[in-house]
């Protein structure tokens, strides 16, 4: 479904997991800051609406969308966060630079999701015109920042569920004797 047929701010509140214990990083590009500030407002509002305490939200700025990659990497490496939201707005200019910035930040954020254990949410507008960006940052198509906040909550929950499931399976294997901790007797004497 294309964005033009969907409101980015709409979501089923009943489908959102309990997020009050999760912590979120938000990295915001300063290019097109009228748009990125509106996206950040949507993201923070989406988190607060779902019981995330304001003190569980850490915000950093970077110069442009290309720097979101490094900013998100340092955020997840140095801060105790369950997910990171990367916010940017790239608008087509006169040259091919748009293509390289969009491809670079897309691939870079994808790489972070592959190489690290913290979900990084892609909240980067890649628009042909400023009006398209306005429409998607609190305008007629809603706010992609809110959409990103909901995605961040759901991915933080998925991460925690996966970890819990793994720990439960390990405990079951240990207690059944099917798994041995190195250096410890298989069965207690
Ligand atoms: N033209 C836009 C940019 N360009 C700047 C790059 O993101 C980057 O900061 C620069 O190449 C230095 O590494 N950035 C945006 O976020 N939006 C644009 O429209
Ligand atoms: C995405 C960009 O870097 C672009 O807005 C810069 O504009 P231009 O292509 O005219 O240099």
From TrEMBL:
EC number in record: 2.5.1.78
A biological-process GO annotation: riboflavin biosynthetic process
Active site: 97
Keyword Transferase: yes
UniProt: (2S)-2-hydroxy-3-oxobutyl phosphate binding residues: 94-95, 136
One GO cellular component term noted in the UniProt record for this chain: cytosol
Record's keyword annotation contains Transferase: yes
Pfam families: DMRL_synthase
Listed SUPFAM superfamilies: Lumazine synthase (SSF52121)
InterPro entries named among the record's database cross-references: LS, LS/RS, LS/RS_sf
Sample GO molecular function, one term: 6,7-dimethyl-8-ribityllumazine synthase activity
Organism domain of life: Bacteria
UniProt pathway annotation: Cofactor biosynthesis; riboflavin biosynthesis; riboflavin from 2-hydroxy-3-oxobutyl phosphate and 5-amino-6-(D-ribitylamino)uracil: step 1/2
Binding positions (5-amino-6-(D-ribitylamino)uracil): 31, 65-67, 89-91, 122
Catalytic activity from the UniProt record: (2S)-2-hydroxy-3-oxobutyl phosphate + 5-amino-6-(D-ribitylamino)uracil = 6,7-dimethyl-8-(1-D-ribityl)lumazine + phosphate + 2 H2O + H(+)
Keywords from the UniProt entry: Riboflavin biosynthesis, Transferase
Cross-referenced HAMAP family: Lumazine_synth
Function: Catalyzes the formation of 6,7-dimethyl-8-ribityllumazine by condensation of 5-amino-6-(D-ribitylamino)uracil with 3,4-dihydroxy-2-butanone 4-phosphate. This is the penultimate step in the biosynthesis of riboflavin.
Family stated for the protein in its record: Belongs to the DMRL synthase family.
Record protein name field: 6,7-dimethyl-8-ribityllumazine synthase
Source organism: Flavobacterium cellulosilyticum
